[in-house]
């Protein structure tokens, strides 16, 4: 249950899909207006970047959203983690970043395909630091790992069963899969998460998964929560 007087919208993995993000934010604003007065919090569940074509524009859009709606909160996903390490000059992280959709992120900042292909990793690291605005880096560094509101906890990937929320490892919150997904029981709170794509919103005894694969042709999903009610909004490609 969400505490009285509050309303929450949680958004699944955006992955550079800025057109769908803008559509979904407009849908949420309209939905919020029809439901009457409440203290509304928007939570992005992480993986804003990579794979889709518009990562830089997504970050711009969400920086502007936080300025308009200061109650907006952001969870760090595994893709933000790798991106930030790559920006710090970690070559291993940069190699991984490029394998998991970072090419599209880099190109969203204005680097062309031929330029990307021509650079070695040392050169690419320098170019990445040059083209990513400091405001974007600072924004990504400000993200949280877990947000608890009422009977719900919002994370990127999931939690380790049997471990208190306050004791969860950051690596699990951002990266866990099967140990969490295969667990059929309940947790300390109902877990709302992204990270693992499902064709539709996945509802289980202890969790609700809302990564519906926006970058892969699926909808971008928001879960609305108020009191004991919940509902789904989706922006399709």
Structural notes for this entry:
The structure is a single chain. With about 240 residues, the protein is of the alpha/beta class. The protein has helices at about 20-35, 55-70, 80-85, 90-110, 115-120, 120-130, 135-140, 170-175, 180; strands spanning about 5-10, 40-45, 75, 145-150, 150-155, 190-195, 200-205, 205-210, 220-225, 230-235. A 5-stranded mixed sheet has the order 3-2-1-9-10, with helices on one face. It starts with 5 loop residues before the first strand and ends with a strand. One of its GO terms (biological process) is RNA decapping. Pfam families: Metallophos. One of its GO terms (molecular function) is phosphatase activity.
How are the SSEs ordered, and which strands pair?
Blueprint: E1 6-11, H1 18-34, E2 39-44, H2 55-68, E3 73-74, H3 78-87, H4 91-108, H5 113-118, H6 121-131, H7 134-141, E4 147-149, E5 152-154, H8 170-175, H9 178-181, E6 190-193, E7 202-203, E8 207-209, E9 220-226, E10 229-235
Parallel strand pairs: 1-2, 2-3, 5-6, 6-8
Antiparallel strand pairs: 1-9, 4-5, 7-8, 9-10
Helix pairs in contact: 3-4, 4-6
CATH fold field value of the domain at 6-77 and 145-235 = Purple Acid Phosphatase, chain A, domain 2
Instruction: Tally the beta strands.
Output: 10
Sheet with the most strands, sense and barrel status = 5 strands, mixed
CATH architecture call of the domain at 6-77 and 145-235: 4-Layer Sandwich
Strand order in the largest sheet: 3-2-1-9-10
Instruction: Compute the number of helices.
Output: 9
Shape: globular
Short description:
Residues 7-195 form the Calcineurin-like phosphoesterase domain. Strand 7 and strand 8 form a beta hairpin.
